[in-house]
Amino acid sequence: MQLVEEGRLQVYDPVAKYLPEIGKMKVGTEITVDGRPALRLSDPERAMTVQDLLRHTAGLTYASRGTSLVHKAYIDAKIGDRTATIEEMVKRLSGVPLLFTPGERWDYSVAVDVQGRLIEVLTGKTLMEAFNERVFQPLGMVDTAFQVPAAKLARAAQPGQKPNGPPMTPRFKVDDGAKYESGGGGLLGTAEDYLRFSLALANGGAFQGKRIIGRKTLEFMTADHVGNRPGRPDGFGFGLGFEVHTKLGGDSALMGSVGEYGWSGAAGTTFWVDPKEHLVGIYMVQASAEDTRFLRNQFRSMVQAAIAD
Q: 82 phi and psi, to 5 degrees?
């Protein structure tokens, strides 16, 4: 969105304007041929836009989010392979079918990684260079990167063991020198660094005199951009990069405030910003899959219960 502010792109721009290979993607619909599942490929009803990437309505997905032939195609194409660059990943992705026509529904996906490639193309820098210049250095986030340097390796958190269960194993080595700079799930950092980032959001886009985004741009980003499209749980929409709390009650099981926004990580981390209560919540944990939702929801409930006036 900094690039939008600079006039380098618009949220309604087709992604193919900057990444032409994305414009070649077809929608894959499962059919049965001679008693076997197959994919019928067809043109999407409309082009994928930058807004679709930001709000996860792009027609993309993750291999882990289903068992369809499209999800299998992600595995076969090695989408997310850490030995590849983001540029190579996007080229591979362009040969994989879309799960649905862009804009049709919400599905969390590798769209954030495609955003990373957009940043590289438009800035002429690697994603890490752009992050450093535009976010990390201005906010003083000194411990956030895609790799942990040798001098800081002793500070890296280690996976623990669940009582009466198998030990957790790392998803990847934090110092393996991998080329893949994944905007969707590759950064390593500290709670202190993430607090600086979260406080910048809570303060309308600035922290300690350093502005990373305009106040009105942030307001636009934290509005619900999904509406009644399928895919989101009751009470939660999605903005441009954030989950947005849209209502209390109904089938929504979490306390909080309408208008708060944030997101969670696959291994249990979570953060949110509550403008109404002037509150930031950050929970940094790596837990086994069955525990992640319980633990972070319990943390949220305890925070809400502590608000007494």
A: -75, -5
pLDDT band at 113 (very low <50, low <70, confident <90, very high): very high
The model's pTM? 0.94
Buried b / exposed e along 117-156 (16+ C-beta atoms within 10 A): bbbbeebeebbbebbbebbbebbebebbbbbbeeebeeee
Domains of the chain from N-terminus onward: 2-123 (3.40.710.10), 141-305 (3.40.710.10)
Side chain identity at residue 280, one-letter code: V
Q: Give the dihedral sign, CA 200/205/207/211.
A: positive
Q: Please count the residues of the chain.
A: 309
Whether residue 263 contacts residue 243, with contact meaning beta carbons closer than 8 Å, is answered with yes
With 90 as the cut, is the pLDDT of residue 47 above it? yes
What pLDDT, in 10s, does the model give residues 82-107? 999 999 999 999 999 999 999 999 99
Q: How far apart, in Å, are the Cα atoms of 90 and each of 46, 60, 105, 179, 215?
A: 19, 12, 21, 14, 32
